[in-house]
Target: Elongation factor Ts
Amino acid sequence: MAAITAADVNKLRTMTGAGMMDCKKALTEANGDFEAARDILRKQGQKIADKRAENATAEGLVLAAVSEDGTNGKLVALACETEPVAKVEDFKNLAQQILATAVKTNAATKEELLAASQEDGRSLQEHITDLMGKIGEKLDVVAYENVTAEKVASYIHSDNKKGVLVAMKNVGGADVTAVGRDVAMQIVAMKPVALDKDGVDAATIEREIEIGKEQARAEGKPEAMLEKIAQGKLNKFYKENTLLNQEFVKDNSVTISQLLDKTQKGLTISDFKRVAIVG
Model:
């Protein structure tokens, strides 16, 4: 049986980030073989991942990064099970590592991001799994967005659990930093379902029409009028739930579309992404 020294334990801790006692136990089990000890620790993380796979992840961090020229934005959401874990330095460092990997690789999808190799040769997913073994909770990248446009604005809400990227076009020479942030804050608060009415899916439209008809019927309206009434309610739905038609929360005398046009003629939003960590 190989003698396990404090230096050996510290070396494995540096390599893996695992706790001191876990490292000592793994080295002892591996008879001093560092690679075998790393495998043991990784299996511990995978066991926790498997055991807690169905657990809810209602806490965590949302982070954003916008390129220096403002044409690309990345948004990541790393979730955990409990609030204390979201405040642990190892968890916050992992979230930053995920965002940095997204920026470095320009990954198109979450799957591509998680497969990205890190400096030590392991994938990002392996780093996440290994930290599960140390922390003892399910950790999950619940969202990843990558947006490119003429200008991209970002906003992270004060609870660090909600974030938005806004893609703007027809920017011209205007400084759109402030209006982009205002629109992003609007999206966090008002949760639009689409950019405009053309972006609302058919199933939602059908559901809103049926709800409108049922409400009118319950109010005793004639059957012949139900369709017209329902269409009126649908238009109200568009106004309240599509971004460009929503009233601006800071000044309800203008819609978001009008706000943008006042900032720069023709300025508009081509896309937006909203992510949130919810229970």
Notes: The two ends are 48 Å apart (CA to CA). The first helix runs from residue 6 to 16. The chain has a mean pLDDT of 90.
